Amino acid sequence: MLNRIIKLGSITGLAFLSFSCNDFDDNYQEPLPLVLVPDNFPEFVDSKTNPLTSDGVLLGKKLFFDKRLSGNNKVSCATCHQQSLAFSDGFALTKQGISGNALERNSPALINLAWANNGLFWDGGSTNLESQAFAPLAHVDEMHQNLDELLDELKEDTDYPKMFQRAFGKTINQADIVKAIAQFERTLISSNSRYDKYVRGESGGILDQEELEGLKLAEQFCFSCHAGSLMTDNLYHNNGIDNDFTDDSELMMRRGRARITGSSEDLGKFRTPTLRNIEKTGPYMHDGRLGTLEAVLEHYSNSVLFSSTLDPLLRKNGNLGIPLSETEKKQLIAFLKTLTDYAYINDKRFSE
Amino acid sequence: MKNFKNITLALIALTALNSCSNDDVQAIADVSGSTQINFDSKVGTADFALNTPFTISGQSYQFDHLRYWVSDVKLVSDKNVTYALSNSFFLMEETSDILVQETFTYKANKREAIDLKDVPSGSYTKVIFSIGVDATHNDNMSIQDGELSQLNGMTNVSWMWHTSYIFSSLTGKNVTPDTPVAVSVETGLNANYRTVEITLPTALIVSAGKTAKLNLNVDVEKIIKDIDLVAKPKISASTPELMTKVADNYKNNVFTVKSVE
């Protein structure tokens, strides 16, 4: 797992370090690519308002792991986004925020977010990683950081003032904090599961018979939503885990996507999570109600509930759900486990 | 000797002009004295004031803040030349202390004027401005132009509906019932962004050595025109159709010209 090699020929998209004028000195070195995108992935489209730079990514990484970003200096982004779990946290509804109260939603895994171009959060309540970062930073049950005080805290650090200056040419400010974090997040690319190697015909890319049978089932039943090499369509679906989305509370959390769009057609819809690293990112669903992959398949097989916004693919020929035999469930799970990217969860570039 | 002095002064002036870029020369040549837009808050004909009872639709309200973003201000001249202040965001407000993020206090403040910089001399017959924050800035809170900030309590980072800005906010209480009822009238969806266009009854003359002032009435009563705050004391993301109504009121009914100086 440590001898991951992305051959140069297989790399279609590279974003290089950007240079400020004074980088061109006698110590010039070949630029290192900031992100490596294999050829079974869509093109990497960088942010126009916040393009990647090596200094920005470096700063973002430091901030991501820094507990000073929370009100009590005990919670960092990484608290609920742990690399060993593909940047999820293993809880249904985490209580790791500074209030100790359970959050409203399951902490999503951070995987290939550079392509998450149709909304973040389970209901799409944030349009980009920059804006998104303000929510956990400020939320009373998450990091609850006073954003004014934060500047003073970071200014006291020996490195931050220089790092902000290098990355953004400015003194420390709130906007550049979230920009840096967003840059680091866009470099979190997972593309080296055994299944990827199988798809690319690389060494180590071997699936056994059970896994191949599972792949066939996934192609038949899963890939329409968990689509393409990103294994998500970045869309919102009602997958039948509930059938009553009435919620007149201020937060309207049960409404799902409809709380953002205001459209009744979006009731009970939630963002399709990627299947990548799915073995590591349980418990599952927007509220983490399903603890295991077995429970997830059991839901799709036998427990899909009808409502007017239920995805049509889960109600074919008038039958609810996707009937799966016990053997098929085992085959699917065997396949899903080939999507674990050990290089990703061990990559030193993403570690504290 | 006197002539010599004058020539010297003229030369200095010329040199100063020459040292600027071409753009600057153009600007300096055309630019006038100062130009100001005042937003004077009222309730009907009475002056708006905080924590003071006003009767609206038979109910007595005491407000503790009125806040709204004015952005993308434009003046259009009689020669159809447009002065535009792009990426401009001004937080207009009359507010008591506001607890932001439950951790720090945004101090009570009254702000009703916008100073427009470098308006070219001319006779302006129309003013255009938007209420709210355009989608580009609203969707990406890291693009912080003008007075946009996370620190003024006009953001909604805590998931209420979206990571986005509050476009307008009128809060207080209805003191008519025995137990006063909190009222809150807010907008903030991209669909709530509105552009106001007002033709001036007399031209706003911008010229050298003069302070041009456009005074607008902001009728707080009109913000909630045709809205039943007794039935719905809280207008927010959970009542999107009422937010639309409020946004339309800002566009069509709230702002009128008081005077042009």
Describe the structure.
The complex is a heterodimer of chains A (352) and B (261). Chain A has helices at residues 54-64, 77-80, 129-138, 147-155, 160-168, 174-186, 194-200, 209-221, 258-261, 293-303, 326-336, 342-346, and strands spanning 11-16, 33-38, 236-237, 270-271, 315-316, 319-320. In chain A, 47% of the residues are buried. In chain A, the strands form three sheets. A two-stranded antiparallel sheet of chain A has the order 1-2. A two-stranded antiparallel ribbon of chain A has the order 3-4. In chain A, strands 5-6 form a two-stranded antiparallel ribbon. Chain A is mainly alpha-helical and 352 residues long. Chain B has 261 residues and is α+β, with helices and mostly antiparallel strands. Chain B is 20% helix and 43% strand. Chain B has five helices and 16 strands. The radius of gyration of chain B is 22 Å and the shape is globular. Residues 1-29 of chain B have low confidence and may be disordered. At the A-B interface, helix 3, helix 4 and helix 6 of A face loops of B.
Q: What composes the largest sheet of chain B? A: 9 strands, mixed
**How would the global form of chain A be characterised?**
globular
Largest sheet of chain A: 2 strands, antiparallel
N- to C-terminal separation of chain B?
43 Å
Global geometry of chain B: globular
Helix and strand sequence of chain A? EEHHHHHHHHEHEHEEHH
Question: Unreliable segments of chain B (pLDDT under 50, ≥5 consecutive)?
Answer: 1-29
Count of individual beta strands of chain A: 6
Overall pLDDT confidence of chain B: 87
- Bin the strand percentage of chain A: 5-15%
Radius of gyration of chain A: 21 Å
Question: In what order do the strands lie side by side in the largest sheet of chain A?
Answer: 1-2
